[in-house]
Amino acid sequence: MLSVNSVLIPTEGNGEPFFKFNQLVVYFHPSANQICLLELHPNTLRKPKPHSLDEIHIAISEGQLRVGTLQTPVEHRLEEREISESRRQNRDKRFQRIEPVLDDLQAYFYPRYGKCPVAQRSRELNVSPTTLHRIMLMWLVGGQTKNALLGDYSKVGTAPPCGGSKKGGCETAK
């Protein structure tokens, strides 16, 4: 059944799909009968949006959606001793930045006008709210674990997608 970190996958064939992309379940709001879903778009991540829990259950029962599990990267499952000291420090610094926001997730997903916890925390730390939203998205997409804040180094040192590398910038005069 549905739980935090479940993935809702749209099915093909039943006319218009319920969602265009997979959705990650990040929060349940039982008193409002709502669920917050984060669209797992391949290029961009946006703040999770609330949806009716009843509509989601109906879409699952009608076969418009199926429930999957979140596949976390290997580095998110590492033990403390397997993580370098500098990466642990960066992770812990990120976690300290968002920890007060995590203490009240309902206020993050359902902010009242002028009371967004990310904006308040960004003023306290003198950082951009965009920075804190980016860290929050890392935490949410990574399975809501501390190691989700390690950062993605899987593509470091790999060849560029276009096949070859070419010097950037303008041509030099000869």
Arithmetic mean pLDDT = 84
Distance between the termini: 67 Å
Oligomer: single chain
- Rg for CA atoms: 20 Å
Biggest sheet overview: 5 strands, antiparallel
**Helices and strands: which structural class?**
alpha+beta
What does the model show?
- With 174 residues, the protein is of the alpha+beta class.
- The protein is built from 5 helices and 5 strands.
- It has a 5-stranded antiparallel β-sheet.
- The model has no long low-confidence stretch (mean pLDDT 84).
Brief characterization of the structure:
The protein is an alpha+beta fold. It is built from 5 helices and 5 strands.
Q: How does the SSE layout of this entry go?
A:
Layout: E1 6-10, E2 23-29, E3 34-39, E4 49-52, H1 53-61, E5 65-69, H2 85-102, H3 105-109, H4 117-125, H5 129-141
Name the descriptors.
174 residues, alpha+beta, five-stranded antiparallel beta sheet, 5 helices, 31% helix, globular
